[in-house]
């Protein structure tokens, strides 16, 4: 019977432990927190967007996004749904492909997965921080502050630096580097953005829907329509999280990053001018700020007018065609400089990590060290919002677990 150590009790670690134990391995799972699956519990605002029914390399970023292709094919959605049911977990499948536990509670996912792993024979050791991993001859030595044990194979499934308040750390990168692995520079992803502007902090708490265009070095890179929320530090909301991976990566590489907000995305440029003209013609006695409040939140109207150089108290009847055109243009393209992210503490996931060039994508085994495996977010793979990061965590963990038991 092969002895297997899994470092990290998150999604990929628990999945690997389950499959390794079911394949006959003697599995010990080390988790530094007082319980496993902390990020599972926190994901999806406590609901856990467990997977997406459609997933491909296009939904991921990294030096080589196609690294995920084999794993995703091995854990297709039909197979995953049956696996969940076998663990007593029923899925609620949404029209957009996102899936949640039918209970609408992330705890259901953790209970099912932890119970399945324990029933399979996985020895889960919580409050056990691994201080060192080494290899002597054909065996690995895993050390904690209280003991050391010998194993035939080791999986590093420690996750990333994102959400340190949930126990995240850079330990996995440290262990990987010790064995000669390259670490691709890491950066926060699915994270809020910091803005360099004179107005955003005055609009803190204001929420609206907009089309957000990400601009890198003067070129439009992505457009997403959705909720935005101004904050004291900058801007948040689902649309912002969706563009944040590319924005954060660009900032890491010292590129110029900005966003452009279209506050009325249903209208094209000429239609915007027409609707503003029509609105102003309908309320000739209103001041321009009062009139604009019919199109957008009041605070946004206040600072949009400031950027347009138009007094809030100006009568709409006093505006000339040039001013109306300028204001309409600003409604459709209100630009803000991005000068940072809200950091790893507030990020859902991290980009960068252990270079996938040194990992066998069909086994998750190191190409440098026999018996050493990697899975999940510790690798240089990051997915979009929508269950994709869990998708890769489950898939890579399953493959690693099966392979380690051979």
From TrEMBL:
Residues 3-402 form the RsdA/BaiN/AoA(So)-like Rossmann fold-like domain. Residues 187-349 form the RsdA/BaiN/AoA(So)-like insert domain. Residues 1-20 form the signal peptide. Its cofactor is FAD. Keywords: FAD, Flavoprotein, Signal. InterPro entries: BaiN-like, BaiN-like_dom_sf, FAD/NAD-bd_sf, RsdA/BaiN/AoA(So)-like_dom, RsdA/BaiN/AoA(So)_Rossmann. It holds the Pfam family HI0933_like_1st. This is HI0933 family protein.
């Amino acid at each position: 019977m092969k002895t297997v150590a899994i470092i990290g009790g998150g999604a990929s670690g628990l999945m690997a432990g389950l499959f390794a134990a079911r394949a006959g391995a003697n599995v010990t799972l080390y988790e530094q927190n007082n319980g496993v699956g902390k990020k599972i519990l926190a994901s999806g605002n406590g609901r856990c967007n467990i997977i997406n029914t459609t997933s491909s390399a296009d939904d991921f970023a990294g030096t080589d996004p196609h690294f995920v292709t084999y794993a995703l094919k091995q854990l297709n959605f039909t197979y995953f749904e049956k696996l969940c049911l076998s663990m007593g977990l029923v899925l609620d499948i949404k029209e957009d492909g996102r899936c949640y536990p039918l209970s609408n509670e992330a705890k259901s996912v953790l209970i099912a997965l932890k119970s399945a792993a324990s029933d399979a024979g996985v020895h889960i050791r919580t409050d056990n921080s691994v201080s060192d991993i080494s290899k002597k001859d054909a065996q690995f030595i895993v050390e904690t502050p209280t003991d050391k044990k010998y194993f035939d194979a080791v999986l590093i499934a420690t996750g990333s630096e994102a959400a340190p308040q949930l126990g995240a750390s850079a330990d996995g990168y440290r262990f990987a580097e010790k064995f000669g692995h390259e670490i691709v520079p890491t950066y926060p992803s699915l994270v809020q953005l910091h803005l360099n502007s004179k107005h955003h902090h005055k609009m803190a708490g204001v929420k609206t829907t907009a089309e957000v265009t990400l601009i890198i070095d003067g070129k439009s890179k992505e457009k997403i329509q959705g909720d935005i929320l101004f904050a004291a530090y900058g801007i948040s909301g689902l649309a912002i999280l969706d563009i944040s991976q590319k924005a954060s990566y660009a900032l890491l590489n010292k590129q110029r990053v900005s966003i452009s907000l279209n506050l009325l995305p249903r209208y094209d440029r000429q239609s915007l001018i027409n609707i503003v003209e029509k609105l102003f013609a309908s309320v000739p006695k209103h001041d321009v700020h009062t009139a604009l409040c019919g199109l957008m939140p009041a605070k946004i109207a206040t600072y949009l007018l400031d950027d347009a150089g138009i007094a809030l108290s100006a009568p709409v009847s006093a505006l000339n065609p040039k001013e109306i055109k300028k204001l309409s243009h600003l409604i459709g393209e209100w630009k803000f400089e991005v000068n940072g992210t809200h950091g790893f503490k507030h990020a859902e996931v991290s980009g960068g990590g252990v270079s996938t060039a040194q990992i066998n994508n069909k086994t998750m085994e190191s190409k440098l060290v026999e018996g050493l495996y990697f899975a999940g977010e510790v690798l240089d793979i990051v997915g979009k919002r929508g269950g994709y990061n869990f998708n890769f965590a489950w898939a890579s963990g399953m493959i690693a677990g099966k392979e380690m038991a051979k």
